[in-house]
Amino acid sequence: MIPILYSDHQVLICEKPVGVSSESPGLPDLVNEQTGLKTYPVHRLDLGTGGVCILALSSRMCSALQSIFRNDMVLKDYFAVVSGKPENNSGHYDDLLFHDRRQNKTFIARQLRKGVKEAACDWSVIRSVVRNEQTLSLVRVCLHTGRTHQIRVQFASRGFPLVGDKKYGSRIKGKTPALWAGCISFPHPDHPGQSVCASSRPPAVYPWDCFPDEDYDCIIRS
Questions:
Q1: CA distance 164 to 50
Q2: Whole-prediction pTM
Q3: How far is CA 167 from CA 120, 153, 170, 185, in A?
Q4: What tens digit of pLDDT does each residue of 43-56 get?
Q5: Dihedrals φ, ψ of 30, to 5°?
Q6: DSSP 15-46
Q7: What pLDDT digit, counting tens, does each position of 18-65 carry?
Q8: Phi, psi (5° rounding) for residue 38?
Q9: Domains of the chain
């Protein structure tokens, strides 16, 4: 059963499970079967990332929501568990990123060129703990852009790979990179002045269960 976090006549927000594709065949088909509706994927989450995901209930609304994404009108908060502890408790990352499709891997670039895109995020450390003689930090990340593997490569390039992210250098094992889409907020295309917001907590499995439940309250927006 896919948890439905918000729905109206044109928009549906659900909790994408880890290991399920954001696109068809995947999440839209599961939601269609569960609800009897026809849904359209608006944006992507990596296969190994779970959490809030928007589906449109018409092709018109899908185009309208994708326009909102392109115009940077969507607020996106993620949880990540990184290896180690950043020196500061909060910060801002600005990078130039290049995604190599053949390797399905993103790299830091030194200058703008074809295929290179600007990437920015703000982050704050919620809590750091030691487990099995390894320091883990739960981090809240507010994305200002949505580049492929952005959070994974921005933290890994500074020496803090996500737990379980072998592709970007993590030495701590995990089934998937420890990344979760925690909250999304955006203006409703059909109702000027009305915002839509939905939040989701990671499951109580490693490494998320290394941190107390109240640490995840920070993603709730009114």
A1: 14
A2: 0.95
A3: 21, 9, 7, 30
A4: 999 999 999 999 99
A5: -65, -40
A6: EEPTTS-SSSSSHHHHHHHHHS---EE-S---
A7: 999 999 999 999 999 999 999 999 999 999 999 999 999 999 999 999
A8: -105, 120
A9: 4-219 (3.30.2350.10)
